[in-house]
Amino acid sequence: MLVGAGGAMAVLAGCAGGGDGDGAANETTTTEMETTTTEADGGTETTTEATETTTAADTANVRVAHVSPDAPAVDVLVDGSAVLEEVSFGTVSDYLEVPGGDRQVEITAAGGDPSVFSGTVTVTAGMDYTLAAVGEISEGADQPFEVLVLEDDNSDPGADTARLRAVHASPDAPAVDVTAADVEGALFDGVAFGDAAYVEVPGGDYTVQIRPDTETNDGEVAAEFDVSLEGGQVYTAFAAGYLNPAEAPADTPFDLIVVQDTGGMSG
C-alpha cells in the first residue's frame, strides 16, 4: 500500500472479483466430457476424457473513484440498481462485475436526489475499468463535474517492475510534471486535468514530486509524497483536492490518493 506524506490517505480498494494482475480476471473454464469408442479384440472399448476450454466471461470489472473535491458522499446506480452507497471523497471502490455492453450509470447525492451525473457508459466484457468522478458540482465551477471512463491495465508488469498510473483530478491545478527524487527525468510529463497515463518503474521506495509543467520538468515542487511500489503490482495515483482550498468551493486540500490495483488488496 502506498502512503502519502502530505496528508491523510483514503481507505482504498483492491481487486474483489477482478484485476488480479495475470490477465485472466474475466475468464471461465468449462469442462466437457468426450467419449470415444474404439474397436478392440473381442469387442469394443469405450474411453471418456475430460477436456477444459477457457473462454472470456461476459462481464467486465468496474470500480468507482470519488475524486470530486466539492461533491458530497454519493450513491452509484447501474441500470437503475444501487451498487454503491455513501461513497465519500477519496474513496475507490472494489471492482464490481457488470455485464458487458452499454450500461446506464447514475450518480446521486447519498440517499437520493439530486442527480449529479446520468449517462451511458460502454464497457467491454473481460476488461477492467475505473469510473472516476472528477470536476466540481458548484455553480460557476472551473472544471464541470464529469465521469472519466478509464481502461485499467492490470496485466502482469513483471516480477521486479511496478506499473503506476497518474490521474490528474485537481480542478485548480495546472498541467503538471511528476518527478521522483534521485530519478533522472520525469515519470509523467505535462499531465493536464482529466488526463491519465501509465509508467513502469523498478519496484522500490520513491519520493514523488508534483511540479507545474515546464519544458525541462524542473518547476518548483508544489507537493511531494513518499510512496512504496511493490514489484509485480499495478497502482493508480489520483492527484485530487485543491491546491488553494481557501479560494475554492470546498476546503479539500490537495492530496495524492493512491490505490493498489492488483494483488488482491482490499482497503
What is the CA-CA span between the terminal residues? 9 Å
Global mean pLDDT: 85
Name the poorly predicted regions: 1-26
Proportion of residues in β-strands: over 45%
Integer tally of domains: 1
User: Could you spell the SSE succession in H and E letters?
Assistant: EEEEEEEEEEEEEEEEEE
Please bin the fraction of helical residues. Answer: under 10%
Structural class: mainly beta
Largest sheet, in brief, is: 4 strands, mixed
Q: Please give the number of β-strands.
A: 18
What can you tell me about this protein's structure?
It is a single chain. The protein has no helices and 18 strands. By secondary structure, the protein is an all-beta fold. The protein has one domain (57-260). A four-stranded mixed sheet has the order 6-3-9-10, with no helix packed on it. Strands 5-4-7-8 form a four-stranded antiparallel sheet, with no helix packed on it. A four-stranded mixed sheet has the order 14-11-17-18, with no helix packed on it. The chain is flat and about 90 Å long. 36% of the residues are buried. Mean pLDDT is 85; it is low at 1-26.
Key traits:
4-stranded mixed beta sheet; 267 residues; flat; disordered N terminus; 4-stranded antiparallel beta sheet; mainly beta; single chain
